[in-house]
Design goal:
eight-stranded parallel barrel, about 20% helix, about 30% strand, ten-stranded antiparallel sheet, 38 strands, binds alpha-D-galactopyranose, 12 helices
Length: about 725
Amino acid sequence: MITFDESTQVFHLHNQQISYLMSVEEGNLLAHLYFGKAVSHYAGERAYPRRDRGFSGNLPDSSERDYSKDTLLQEWSGNNTGDYRVPAVIIRDENGARQTDFRYQSYRIVAGKPDLENLPHSYVVDDSEAQTLIITLTDTALNCDLALSYTIFDNWAVIARDAKLINRGSHVLHIEKIASMQIDFPKQDFQVISLPGAHARERQVERQEVGHGVTQFESRRGTSSHHMNPFIALVHPDTTEFAGEAFGVQLVYSGNHQETLERDYIDQTRVLAGINEYDFDWKLSPKDVFQTPEALLVYSDQGLNGMSNTYHHLLRERVARGKYQYAKRPIVINNWEATFFDFDSSKIQEILNNAAPLGIEMFVLDDGWFGHRDDDNSSLGDWFEHAHKLQGGLKEVSRQVHDKNMRFGLWFEPEMISTDSDLYRAHPDYALQVPGRGKTLSRNQLVLDFSRKEVVDNIFHQMVKILDNVKVDYIKWDMNRHLTEVYSAALPADQQGEVSHRYTLGVYDLAERLIERYPDILFEGCSGGGGRFDAGMLYYFPQSWASDNTDAVARLKIQTGTSLAYPMSSMTAHVSVSPNQQTGRATSFEMRGDVAMSGVFGYELDLAKLTDAEKEIVKKQVAFYKEHRQLIQYGDFIRIKSAFKGNDFAWEFVSKDKSEALLFRFKLMSLAQPEFTLTKMAGLDPKIVYEDEKGHSYGGDELMSIGFYDVPLEAADWTSKVDYFAAKERA
Ligand code: GLA
């Protein structure tokens, strides 16, 4: 899969689907040549076209006027040596110089994929699945090595990249910036798709031209955030869901991130992704090593669906881990939107009595069971049971849940501390804070300094006390505010720029310790909804709450945006009350069910308040979901019509062998004199005859080429329809 041609100095990483080419250019600069559809042979046509250009300097100590770092397409750019584009790395030497200039030294190829220490990453199960090229570049003046790692998987259009800095000299260096990856693309028209959002409006799809100058997407909030997901896709103006090229860049990281594009003066486009340089300054003492997070690059020549499909398989099969990686995820009833903080044993018993006969499989006790938490003003950090709320305590709740043949889930918010808590009274320094300054509250809580091991240990031991005593089958790990006063009492002045990355490493450390100790617990990530929905968290927790917004119409967009980069098995979606608590919009029970059933399904409402007719609907939804759960959670997901354009849209799930498919269609606003719109299915076997639930037969080719008219079932806003097709025979 990986070759190096000594005579031309060209590296070629390739499989059946993609090729990635780079070369060692004059001056030992590592040049980027090509990333795209697989080629079997490279004759050298992408070699750097030399030209003397004004105001683009030449290599240091060279008088060759037609060779400039300012226009050379590179794999890794330095700082302050004649490449004026955004650099991949900035290192400050002891003398204050901020010049970095890494040149090629050597390479090695290893079978499989080495692990990234203390960081989430994609992996192989067998070394035959992938090969990894590790290229060493050196900045001789800094006496610093850079190991650039490129993994190519045998059957996916994916390159996994990361970088590692090693200080081999005697100076203390400071890393002011380091990307996980860089690619410089030759001139072409690019647009960029990003996933901006907000709390309760996560991952909206935005597509814009890549103009001259710098286009940047980032989070400075201490987490990957609702506001900008660590994922972008570069596409051409004619790229659609089904056709054209798409280049995905996704970070396996949950902290401050930065994705940068720069279109230069001759229309070449540089792409960088990594830890955000904002507030970052890492001290690299002699012999120290700094490992960047991983970036996952995906190429598709079959449009955005092709790219998403690759990410779905990659994240599900080679990033997520553990017992629940492929397991059927249980249908949940969560008490949050039913009771908020106001629950007691009898209310919970009532929820259980209602849930069990409907076929719901797991009860999740949300916020409010610990400390003296009766509202959101206290007790974070005190992970011991609330003294008065639950008769017989959590053990008794767990017993009651298991008696009903259901599983028991519990909510934690491990990274937070309330000023009204025993933990804060004992250790006020455990909260992030800048000496002599005020502490910014958000939801009336502070953030624990997870860059400190003793803080992470404290929370771990408190959680263990509960989890060793109570039978818990699931944990919802929440995170309900962003970081401020990013400063640690435990670090010296010259390492304060490390706090936010160290915080993220602390989160990963606690998550790893918990999943290792409790392999039977299913973990769900959450951050005020989908505020930390990223591949980093997915390495520890196979699913995440997609949004606090459970409004079916809003969820169409949120789930569509999320599906660009993340598999449906990672996305939890619940039916809640109507009118919706976030948007005030009233939608039918059916529509809410159909949207929520497109992910990992559950309910988040007071079942006791449902009418008998609604309970019948719930029973049907639960039964339908159980019947098709495997297909929804582990089948291929295809976006048929976009939730961001038009009035009707559709998505589809197809099994791997194409023997069954589910088509979900949604209509937004009701129209008098409605237009006749068509939906055509995709991804089926044209030669299979499929049968729907009414016993009608259709050819696979017919469903894909002829399709259906989307005639609304009723004259109402926000309607939905689900059709199931199973293979009857081969034509
Ligand atoms: C966050 C979560 C909700 C719920 C509350 C509890 O907002 O997203 O689902 O758990 O916290 O405080």
